Model the fold of this input.
Amino acid sequence: MIHHRQERLNEHVKRAISKVVSYELRDKRTFGIRISSVEVTPDLKHAYVLFTLLDPKHKKNAIIGLNSASGHIRTRVAKILNLRNTPELHFRYDSQDIDALNLENLIEAERKRNE
Done:
């Protein structure tokens, strides 16, 4: 069970990472990234960051770009949120949006076939 404090921390870290990724990173590999969720572990040592892309074909390059910029992102998050201990960032591609879209397309195709 996630406590209210943990939920607020997750949201604050998500906003800070989004701000840094959107406005401060100049790496072409990180363009079109949207942070979908962040889950900080209770001990504040790790943060698992899920992101989506405008073009999912570039997810491998996006992960490489984010990992190479993780030190900068972590430093900026610490300054933005005034954190004493900033969690180590682990970036993962969030395929839920893609899966949902594929499922909707399959349902629509089946509906058209049955008409």
DSSP finds four helices and three strands in the chain. The longest strand covers residues 33-40. The chain has a mean pLDDT of 87.
